[in-house]
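Retry 2 of 3 after timeout on previous attempt. Resubmitting structure tokens to design endpoint.
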């Protein structure tokens, strides 16, 4: 279940989006990198759904639209300047392999060719676990970059925003905004009800945007969070918890299904009725570090 308070790891941001790992497979294949598939591809539409005991429990449309990746001739898969895995194909099936701290994962996609420059990749898997039956469905349509598609390399970002209180809905800085240092704010200024008006996850390397995801209603845009004077908080999506302010750090603890998680947000920018909360993190890379950003902007009701 996607929540208002969302932290996205770099692996989720760079690897999972567009290459859902729920269809993990240990199947070996003798295919290799097909020359006709080498190049940069952009997702023009996507669909994902999950079922439990025959009932649909999650559904997302066009979550990966605008994302791009490169299938290299040496069999590696890259996003921007970052190698994220490997690929192979026999023309009818594609295998995407990534490695994280939990091991190596291979996802098997069926391929449907529309033209030399357009394909749909999909999977439909079923499995049983803990006495329940599950089904995972995913598809994405890919267009080769530079072949006249309406989607180009910058479709998932916008022109940098001049506002100092977070970007507008649907906009992500194309250059690294730097690490938030925090601004002064008092407890009295925080107490009240706030609407989430925008948010994004992004990863930057060498100052340039590697990949990004803009928050939608599924991620909480439009939800209302109320911070009460007694240190409790409620969210219109049914979550509740506690909060505390220490300098420019706002600690939010939210409970769901008996599990509590505390998120440390830094107050990156503020005005009389608007505040941007940020999480910044660094992931080491052999050539240079990657700066990850989580940004959510609230407006006072």
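Retry 2 succeeded. Sequence:
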């Amino acid at each position: 279940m996607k929540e208002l308070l969302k932290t996205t790891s770099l692996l989720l941001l760079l690897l999972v989006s567009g290459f859902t790992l729920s269809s993990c497979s240990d199947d070996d294949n003798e295919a290799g990198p097909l020359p006709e598939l080498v190049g940069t591809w952009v997702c023009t539409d996507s669909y994902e759904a999950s079922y439990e005991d025959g009932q649909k429990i999650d559904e997302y449309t066009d979550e990966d639209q605008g994302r791009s990746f490169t299938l290299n001739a040496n069999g590696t898969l890259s996003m921007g300047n970052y190698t994220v895995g490997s690929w192979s194909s026999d023309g009818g099936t594609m295998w995407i392999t990534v490695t994280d701290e939990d091991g190596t994962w291979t996802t098997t996609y069926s391929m449907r060719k529309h033209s030399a420059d357009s394909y749909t990749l999909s999977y439909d898997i079923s499995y049983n676990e803990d006495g329940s039956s599950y089904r995972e469905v995913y598809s994405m349509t890919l267009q080769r970059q530079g072949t006249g598609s309406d989607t180009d390399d910058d479709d998932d970002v916008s022109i940098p925003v001049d506002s100092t209180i977070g970007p507008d809905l649907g906009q992500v800085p194309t250059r690294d905004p730097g690490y938030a240092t925090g601004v002064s704010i008092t407890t009295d200024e925080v107490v009240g009800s706030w609407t989430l008006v925008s948010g994004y996850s992004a990863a930057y390397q060498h100052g340039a945007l590697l990949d990004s995801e803009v928050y939608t209603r599924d991620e909480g845009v439009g939800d209302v969070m109320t911070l009460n004077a007694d240190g409790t908080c409620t969210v219109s999506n049914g979550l509740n918890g506690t909060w505390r302010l220490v300098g420019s750090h706002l600690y939010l603890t939210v409970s769901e299904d008996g599990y509590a998680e505390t998120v440390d947000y830094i107050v990156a920018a503020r005005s009389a009725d608007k505040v941007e909360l940020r999480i910044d993190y660094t992931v080491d890379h052999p050539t240079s570090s990657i700066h990850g950003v989580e940004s959510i902007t609230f407006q006072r009701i």
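Attempt log closed. The longest strand covers residues 39-52.
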